[in-house]
Design goal:
Layout (H helix, E strand, L loop, with lengths): L1 E7 L2 E10 L4 H14 L2 E12 L1 H16 L3 E5 L3 H10 L1 H4 L1 E2 L1
Parallel strand pairs: 2-3, 3-4, 4-5
Antiparallel strand pairs: 1-2
């Protein structure tokens, strides 16, 4: 998986490409959690994400909890039908802000 980070006006966008699984989830968590110290809003751009495992879902939950603790926004964008299906089946689409 690759993570492309951009920052503009208090917003950090992390664009993910590839697979978010047990081997890549720690990489995302290492980028995601500190992003909330630098920005008021963190956006995960998932348009090029092809797969998410339970380990990846756990990192999304860590992001949500970190955002709540820091009183920040956490948004998912560009979610493909395949990834949205996973988020719907697991109930994550009800917890996360998806645009």
């Amino acid at each position: 998986m690759t993570i492309n980070k951009t920052q503009e006006s208090g917003i950090i966008t992390l664009a993910l490409a590839g697979r978010l699984d047990a081997s890549t989830a720690p990489q995302l968590q290492d980028c995601l959690v500190p992003a909330f110290d630098e920005a008021d809003e963190v956006i995960l751009e998932l348009g090029k994400l092809t797969y998410v495992s339970s380990a990846g879902l756990r990192v999304l939950l860590v992001g949500l909890k970190t955002a709540t603790a820091k009183n920040a926004e956490f948004v998912l964008t560009g979610v493909s039908e395949e990834i949205m299906e996973i988020l719907d089946m697991t109930g994550f689409s009800d917890m996360l802000t998806i645009k």
